[in-house]
Specification:
The chain is α+β, with helices and mostly antiparallel strands. It folds into 3 domains: 200 residues, D-Maltodextrin-Binding Protein, domain 2, CATH 3.40.190.10; 182 residues, Periplasmic binding protein-like II (D-Maltodextrin-Binding Protein, domain 2); 96 residues, Immunoglobulins (Immunoglobulin-like, Sandwich), CATH 2.60.40.10. It has 19 helices and 25 strands. Strands 1, 2, 3, 4, 7, 15 and 16 form a 7-stranded mixed sheet that branches. It has a 4-stranded antiparallel sheet with strand order 18-19-24-25, with helices on one face. A 3-stranded antiparallel sheet has the order 11-8-12. A hairpin with a 5-residue loop joins strand 21 and strand 22. The longest helix has 21 residues.
C-alpha cells in the first residue's frame, strides 16, 4: 500500500510539473483577459503496453479510460497470437511490452531463468489469491506472476450410454468393451492430442510421474520418472488396448473429440477449453468429480495456472505493478476474465461465487492435481515423452523400450542444457549483444521455435557493414548448416548499407536460413 501511495504521489507530481511547464507565462501587455492565449491540452504522461490474446484483450481495453483518468497514463493493449514466443524474442533486446498477459506458469520457468521477468508484489491483496496458484507462480522463493485462473482436465462420460462413471480403469475398459460388443460405440475411450498431458490421470493411476521432488519439496530434474515402473505399466496398459482395437491410434485432437461428441466413444478426458465445443455438439454428458483409479490409486491430472507477468526490461515496472494491483486484481475484472476464459478463477472472491457445474466437477477431480513442474527441464520432456508413448501405443516398440529411450533422451538434454538450442553464430553477434562473434552458445541470438514449426531470432540492430553467419545446433559447431542447407556448408552473407536490423528464420526440415535486413 505504501508503494502504491508513493507511486500515486509521484505521478501527481510529474503531472503537475508537466502542466506548469506547458502553461503560458503571465502576459505583460494590457490586453483584455479574454485575449490571453490558452495552454494547449496536455496529453498522457506516458504509456503502459500490454500484450494479450484475443480472449483477454477486450477486457483489458475496457480499463483504458479508468487508467487514463486515474494516472493520465495511456493503456495500450496489443493483440498477440504467440505471446511467449514473441516475448522471448523481443524482451532480450529491450523491446516488447511492459506486461505479458496470459502465459501458463510452467512456460515461465525459462523466462525467469533468462532474467526476462520482474518479481511481482501482490501487496495487501495477496490473501485473495488461491495459494496453490500463487505457489505455481513462485520460482526460487520469489513470485513472478499474478495468477488469474487455474485449469485441469476432467473425465467426461456420455450419460446416454453410461449412467454411473467407472471407478477404476478396469471398469472403464469393461464398460466400454460391453458397449462395443453391443454395437453402440466404436471405441472404449477417445484419446485427444498429446498422450503425455491428456492421459496423465492414467499414468499417475499406475504410479507414473515425470519428475520427483527433493527433500526440500522442490522439483528434482535428476529424478526423471518417464521410465519409472508405473509409467511403463500405464503405457503398456494403453498399448494393449490399442492392440485389441479398443482405442483409436489416431490421436488428433479434433477427430477424437468428434468421436465423443457423436457417441462413437463413451469417455474422453478433456479440459475446460473444450467445454464450448462439447456443449454445442448436443451430446448428453457429465463430468465425474474423480478420475478412475489404477494399481497406485486414483488418478490425478496435471494442473496449470494462467499468469500475468512484468517485463524485467520495462521502464515502467512500478506503474505495471500498480496497474495489476489496482485495476486487474478486482472482483469486476477477475469476474470478466473468468467468464471469458471458462477456467476456475485464481481470485478467491470470484472462485467462491462460481456456479458452473462442469467447472465445479473439474475442480473436485483436480483436488489432488499435480501442478506442472515449473522448471526449465520440462522443455526437454514433452516431445520425447509423447514420442515414447506414441511409439508404444502404435505398436512400433514395446512400452519398456520406448519409455526407456525417451527418458534417456530427456536426461541427455538436461545434462547439456544447450541441447536443442538453434543459433545463428556469425560476425554480427558482438554488435547484437553477444560477448563475441561466432558464438554458437550465445543466448542473446538463440532462436525461438514458433507455432508454425519455424525458428526465429531478431530483429537485431546492427551498424552498416558486411556480415556472415550460419546455423548451429546444440550450442556447438558439431552440427551446423551453411547456405546450401548442407552440414558444414558455406557461410551465409548479408549486408547493411546503413544502420538497420536483421532477422533470421530457420526451417529445420530443409536446414535453410532466411535472412531479412531492413
Amino acid at each position: 500500500m505504501k508503494r502504491t501511495l508513493f507511486f500515486l504521489v509521484s505521478i501527481m507530481m510529474i503531472a503537475t510539473m508537466l502542466l506548469t511547464a506547458c502553461a503560458p507565462k503571465t502576459p505583460v501587455a494590457t490586453q483584455p483577459a479574454t485575449d490571453v492565449p490558452t495552454a494547449a491540452p496536455v496529453g498522457p504522461a506516458g504509456t503502459l503496453v500490454v500484450w494479450a490474446d484475443d480472449t483477454r484483450a477486450p477486457i483489458l481495453e475496457d480499463l483504458a479510460d479508468e487508467v487514463l483518468a486515474a494516472y493520465n497514463i495511456e493503456l495500450v493493449v496489443v493483440l498477440k497470437a504467440s505471446l511467449r514466443d514473441d516475448f522471448q524474442i523481443a524482451a532480450p533486446v529491450g523491446e516488447g511490452p511492459d506486461i505479458l498477459f496470459g502465459v501458463p506458469h510452467d512456460q515461465a520457468a525459462t523466462m525467469v531463468a533468462n532474467g526476462l521477468l520482474a518479481p511481482i508484489d501482490l501487496g495487501d491483496k495477496a490473501d485473495l489469491f488461491v495459494p496453490v496458484a500463487v505457489n505455481a507462480c513462485t520460482f526460487d522463493g520469489q513470485l513472478y506472476c499474478m495468477p488469474y485462473a487455474t485449469e485441469n482436465l476432467g473425465f467426461f462420460y456420455n450419460t446416454d450410454l453410461v449412467q454411473t462413471p467407472p471407478a477404476t480403469w478396469d471398469e472403464v475398459v469393461s464398460v466400454g468393451e460391453a458397449l462395443m460388443a453391443e454395437g453402440k460405440v466404436t471405441y472404449v475411450i477417445a484419446l485427444p492430442g498429446g498422450l503425455d498431458y491428456n492421459m496423465y490421470p492414467l499414468w499417475t493411476a499406475f504410479g507414473g510421474y515425470v519428475f520427483g521432488k527433493n527433500d526440500a519439496g522442490n522439483w528434482d530434474d535428476q529424478d526423471v520418472g518417464v521410465d519409472s515402473p508405473g509409467m511403463i505399466a500405464g503405457v503398456q496398459f494403453l498399448a494393449d488396448l490399442a492392440a485389441k482395437g479398443d482405442i483409436p491410434t489416431d490421436f488428433d485432437w479434433a477427430n477424437n473429440h468428434a468421436l465423443f461428441e457423436t457417441g462413437k466413444a463413451p469417455f474422453i478426458i478433456a479440459g475446460p477449453w473444450a467445454l464450448d465445443r462439447i456443449r454445442q455438439s448436443g451430446v448428453h454428458y457429465a463430468i465425474a468429480d474423480f478420475f478412475p483409479a489404477g494399481p497406485a490409486g486414483p488418478g490425478s491430472p496435471f494442473a496449470g495456472t494462467q499468469g500475468i507477468y512484468i517485463n524485467a526490461q520495462s521502464e515502467n515496472i512500478l506503474l505495471a505493478q500498480t496497474f495489476l494491483n489496482e485495476f486487474v486484481a478486482t472482483e469486476e475484472t477477475m469476474q470478466k476474465l473468468y467468464e471469458a476464459g471458462k477456467r476456475p478463477s485464481a481470485f478467491i472472491p470470484v472462485l467462491e461465487t462460481t456456479a458452473d457445474p462442469d467447472l465445479l466437477a473439474m475442480g473436485k477431480a483436480g483436488a489432488n492435481a499435480t501442478m506442472m513442474p515449473g522448471i526449465p527441464a520440462m522443455g526437454a520432456v514433452w516431445a520425447n515423452w509423447n514420442n515414447g508413448i506414441t511409439l508404444a501405443v502404435q505398436g512400433t516398440s514395446t512400452a519398456e523400450v520406448s519409455m526407456t529411450d525417451a527418458a534417456n533422451k530427456i536426461r541427455n538434454v538436461i545434462a547439456n542444457p544447450l541441447t536443442g538450442m538453434v543459433n545463428v553464430p556469425g560476425s554480427y553477434q558482438a554488435a547484437a549483444g553477444c560477448a563475441a562473434d561466432w558464438s554458437p552458445d550465445c543466448a542473446t541470438t538463440a532462436m525461438i521455435k514458433g507455432d508454425d514449426g519455424l525458428w526465429r531470432s531478431g530483429p537485431f540492430t546492427l551498424p552498416a557493414g558486411n556480415y556472415e553467419g550460419k546455423v548451429a545446433l546444440d550450442g556447438t559447431w558439431t552440427t551446423n548448416y551453411g547456405s546450401d542447407g548442407k552440414q558444414d556448408g558455406p557461410n551465409y552473407t548479408f549486408s547493411l548499407t546503413a544502420a538497420g536490423t536483421v532477422e533470421f528464420v530457420y526451417d529445420e526440415a530443409t536446414h535453410l536460413l532466411t535472412i531479412t535486413v531492413k
